[in-house]
Amino acid sequence: MKPKKTFHILDETIAHRPDLAPDAGGGSDEENPYWAWDEEAPHPNPELGCVRRGLCCKSSPGWFAPGEVEKAAELLAMAPDEFVRKFLIIDATEVDGQIVHTFAPVKLGRDGKPALPPASRADALYRTLRGQCVFYDVDKRGCGIYEARPMECRQYICTNAPGDNPTHEQIARLWVPPGSPSVS
Ligand code: SF4
Questions:
Q1: Residue 105 placed within a domain
Q2: Tens of pLDDT along 128-162?
């Protein structure tokens, strides 16, 4: 028996191509290991902002700003390095031509296991595919580290105009000490 797929594709234009939907005969879970066809619950009222549908938490965990990893570790009564080794992925983006590394909760596959080993570096495939945040509680539809959730999770609201949400570059820029070169 073939293993069940473990990820969703991030790009909505690909993920919702009707010609690829299983019921359109364009593919199936078994034929395409990266295919998934989930109905997203419509937002009841965009003026309400976040209504905890969990779409963000089930696709792309938010990035931490400096100092927040320590707070989240403290919330779980863990040492920061233990917290990183158990729950976080090291991601990176380009800032002014330099690669800056950041931290985010690891994504889980459909098997409930980390999509990459925690404390390893995200790669292009990992960034592209959807996966539920290790801290997201599906039953409670909530965040397991809500009081110390990452900056991106606190500030990102899916009904915002795109320009009103923080970008990864903006968060990565916070990790660059003033006046010092970026870490590559
Ligand atoms: S840390 Fe919390 S708010 Fe952020 S993606 Fe994970 S579950 Fe959602």
A1: yes
A2: 888 999 999 988 889 999 999 999 999 998 888 88
pLDDT of residue 55: 83
DSSP-derived pairing of the beta strands 132-133 and 98-105: unpaired
Tell me the residue range of the domain where 136 lies.
68-175
Q: Given this model, what pLDDT does residue 180 score? A: 66
The tens digit of pLDDT for each residue in 63-79 reads 999 999 999 999 999 99
Q: Is the CB of 64 under 6 A from ligand 1?
A: no
| Alpha-carbon distances, residue 137 vs 51, 95, 142, 146 (angstroms) | 15, 33, 5, 11
Ligand 1, atom 4: closest residue by C-alpha: 153
Q: Does any domain span residue 162? A: yes
| Cα torsion 129, 135, 141, 143: sign | negative
Q: Is residue 141 part of a domain?
A: yes
Q: Kindly state whether residue 57 falls inside one of the protein's structural domains.
A: no
Ligand 1: does its nearest atom lie under 6 Å from the Cβ of 7? no
pLDDT band at 24 (very low <50, low <70, confident <90, very high): low
Cα gap 15→52, rounded to integer Å: 22
Q: Are 176 and 94 in contact (CB under 8 A)?
A: no
